[in-house]
Specification:
Keywords: Membrane, Signal, Transmembrane, Transmembrane helix. This protein is mainly beta and 406 residues long. It contains two helices and 26 strands.
């Protein structure tokens, strides 16, 4: 090795001293059993989410005490919904005895299951029927007694004008609206919506507390989950049989502060929605890490709704990991200083087997190598910085003089 190469090798070694102590920054570990194949699937335990960073960037797979790192891709079992717009033209608008008809002709004979409507009116409550035909002579019923609604005032701004129906394949579709006035249809969109249902777990509730604030006319529900988990959806089941639409706010607990007057809880709003008898699909919460939830329903002048059940669902997160060397591997996490990974396998996901063998992981252990260092990092400490610069100057000076003598 030449003198020049020795200098660069020494500098590289000095500047990368911390890269060899990979495991000591992680607080927790779980043993991984039987890595018999190149690709494996590892399901993250629910008990570990409360100790992970919010973006899951502190997950690592190390083998042989940190000498080997196995790359992985983080996946979740969430729903995948795709919408394909179907081209069409409106060919007829007519009316008869307070019934208004809108006929659409599809440019291609494709399967559809959703029509989105927009009207110029802001306040209405109409019943809709949907019929279909291939020749406009013989019509078949697709949907009956479907309700669309729009309410806008000082207290409520709610609209439900999306018509959902079973998969249907015809050339012509006709919407009939029963109304006391001419519906001013400003826009219609026809879609084929495909939904691939993911795998979810119903989150286990540790406790639930319900309150009625008669003065503010609110119903408030406090939920605490067994574990902090990435919540994907929330569904409120009611016993009421009448129609309703109430503003609803969903919040998550971020932190709490103890004051002289007791504990003060700080909640963050993650959803402002409308709880409606027309739309019972629930509320999407975007896989937010949650331990405690607060749900507030604004009753206004109405009687409080009777809650039968609140169902919280969380996504299943898993790793697709590649093991190219034989070693004793463990899953590490709990590193607040960790940054996102950048593995090559992200760019070659099509080469990953569709159903890799699932691995079992052991119980959570405290990492014996963990060093909870609270002091400033090496290069923020001026003493260490000047010492390192001095070493570098001396080394460079020594080898420079040696080269000049030669």
């Amino acid at each position: 090795m030449t003198t020049k190469n020795k200098i660069f090798a020494l500098l590289f070694l000095v500047l990368n001293l911390n890269s060899f102590a990979q495991t000591e920054d992680f607080k927790f570990k779980r043993k991984i059993e039987n890595t018999s194949e190149t690709w494996h699937k590892i399901i993250l335990p629910e008990a570990s989410f409360g100790k992970l960073k919010a973006d899951f960037s502190d997950i690592r797979i190390f083998g042989n005490d940190g000498k080997i790192e196995a790359p992985y891709i983080l996946k979740s079992s969430e729903n995948h919904i795709s919408e394909v717009a179907i081209p069409f033209q409106m060919i007829n608008v007519s009316s008869r005895n307070s019934e208004y008809f809108y006929t659409f002709e599809l440019s291609e004979n494709k399967q559809i299951n959703q029509i989105k409507l927009n009207f110029n009116q802001e306040n209405f409550d109409w019943k809709v029927e949907l019929e279909a035909s291939n020749n406009q002579s013989e019509w078949f019923s697709v949907l009956k007694n479907y309700r669309i609604l729009s309410i806008k005032n000082s207290q409520t701004d709610y609209k439900f004008t999306q018509v959902d129906f079973p998969d249907s394949k015809y050339k012509f579709y006709r919407i009939k609206i029963k109304a006391s006035e001419q519906p001013k249809l400003t826009e219609a969109k026809i879609w084929e919506q495909k939904k691939n249902d993911g795998d979810f777990k119903i989150s286990v509730l540790k406790s639930q507390k319900n309150e009625i604030d008669s003065k503010k006319k609110l119903s408030i529900f406090y939920l605490e989950l067994q574990h902090k988990v990435p919540v994907s959806s929330l569904n409120i089941e009611l016993t009421n049989t009448f129609d309703y639409y109430r503003p609803i706010t969903i919040e998550v607990l971020r932190d709490s502060i103890e004051t002289e007057n007791g504990w003060r809880f700080n909640y963050e709003t993650i959803a402002n929605e409308t709880l409606s008898s027309l739309n019972k699909t629930g509320f999407s919460l975007g896989n937010t890490l949650v331990k405690k939830l607060k749900i507030t329903v604004e009753n206004g002048s109405n009687q409080p709704l009777e809650i039968k059940n609140i169902v919280v669902k969380n996504s299943i997160y898993y790793l697709l990991a590649r093991f190219t060397e034989k070693a004793d591997y463990s899953l590490f996490y709990g590193n607040l200083k960790a940054s996102n990974t950048n593995y090559d396998i992200e760019n070659f996901q099509e080469k990953i087997p569709k159903n890799p063998k699932e691995l079992q992981i052991g119980n959570e252990e405290k990492n014996p190598d963990f060093k909870n260092i609270t002091q400033s990092p090496l290069f923020e400490n001026k003493i260490w910085l000047w010492a390192l610069m001095g070493i570098i100057i001396v080394v460079i000076g020594y080898f420079s003089l040696k080269m000049l003598r030669e």
